[in-house]
Automatic annotation (TrEMBL):
Plays a role in synthesis, processing and/or stability of 23S rRNA. InterPro entries: YceD, YceD_bac. Residues 155-180 are annotated as: Disordered. This is Large ribosomal RNA subunit accumulation protein YceD. Keywords: Ribosome biogenesis. Signal peptide: none annotated. Belongs to the DUF177 domain family. GO terms for biological process: ribosome biogenesis. The keyword Transmembrane does not apply.
Amino acid sequence: MSIPPSTAALPKSVDARKLVQREQQLIGTLPHESLERLNAAVESIDGDIRAELQFGRNLQGHLTVSGKLHCQVQLECQRCLQPMPEQVEAEFHWGIVWSEEQGKALPKDLDPVVQDSDELNLYQVLEDEILLNLPMVAYHEQECVARDRFQFGEESAEAGEQRENPFKVLEQLKGSSNKS
């Protein structure tokens, strides 16, 4: 028998073993104020993060969590330095373990999540998942900076004439040493 899913705020900490035994499904939100690392990585978070998690066991008997999450964030465009919206959607398949060695023994389709105490910090693990799914470089799809603001190729002839030759001093020294 399964407990009906919850649609309220997800608990910050859970005992994964108990949830796996009950084959529990959790559906809810994470308050973005509690995700400090994500708040530092983005310009802003638009609304709460929605997550769905299904606890269970796979055919090999490993404790697993499968799920997905969705959120909207504002990132700084690396071209124009203005905020731009980004949808973050992630699907994940975790294997709950209690040590790094157990994590190495998991099948390749499961990402190890270490529950190092009696409870798993669900907010931290979901925050990790969001951070891993942020784009490495954010920029608007459309042209947000006019092309004429970029300079390609060599500089104009005027700029070259205004510069002094950096080897002029060496020429003078060479010339004075030949006179002696």
